[in-house]
Design a protein that fits this description.
189 residues; alpha+beta; ten-stranded antiparallel β-sheet; 3 helices; 10 strands; 16% helix; globular
């Protein structure tokens, strides 16, 4: 797993982060579209976007849950940048909208590692990397990705570096997507 900046970076830089070269144009277009919508919602222009990319296909957790774009939240967590997963959707009239997942990339101060999972440092993350570095996009060490059972609790950790992609950043500071109690899995902006 690697994390790389996604917005305002060259195709070469994004591909070098470990992402599949054929997916780079689509990632860049999605990052630009998401950044544009974040600006319309009042986010700051320097809000960063990062992309989680799978180095190799076929890892269920990475392919279905973790891969995608994450935006930098306005508030830090654990004294470092925090990112929330976001994707594009369309409303009934065909207009683009942002959908935010309750999945975050954040620094765990108590455990001294970057984590991907719920924004709750008392809970086990879905993935982690113990490299102490200012942003997840700068991480070079391996990420451990947990296998997850039906109750969404970790079964076992993979010991080899796996397919979580690097987070790609895109300039824009923001506020987080809001999520009501009715929106258990997704917050829609």
């Amino acid at each position: 797993m690697t994390i790389s900046f996604a917005y305002n970076v060259s195709s070469t830089e994004l591909a070098a982060s470990g992402g599949p070269a054929q997916q780079v144009p689509a990632i860049q277009q999605s990052a630009a579209d998401i950044h544009h919508l974040l600006m319309r919602y009042g986010f700051k222009e320097d809000t960063q976007l990062v992309a989680v990319l799978a180095r190799t296909p076929g890892h269920e957790i990475l392919d279905t849950l973790l891969k995608g774009l994450y935006f930098e939240m306005a508030e830090q967590f654990g004294g470092r940048p925090c990112y929330q997963r976001v994707r594009l959707s369309q409303d009934e009239q065909g207009k683009h909208a942002l959908v935010c997942s309750p999945l975050y990339i954040f620094w765990s101060q108590s455990h001294g590692r970057w984590k991907v999972g719920e924004l709750d440092d008392s809970r086990v993350g879905i993935a982690f990397c113990a490299q102490d570095i200012p942003t997840p996009a700068d991480v070079e060490g391996p990420w451990v990705v947990y296998e997850v059972n039906d109750t969404r609790t970790p079964k076992k950790a993979r010991t080899k570096e796996d397919t979580l992609g690097e987070c790609s950043r895109s300039p824009s500071r923001n506020r987080s997507c809001s999520q009501s109690e009715e929106e258990q899995d997704w917050g829609i902006m």
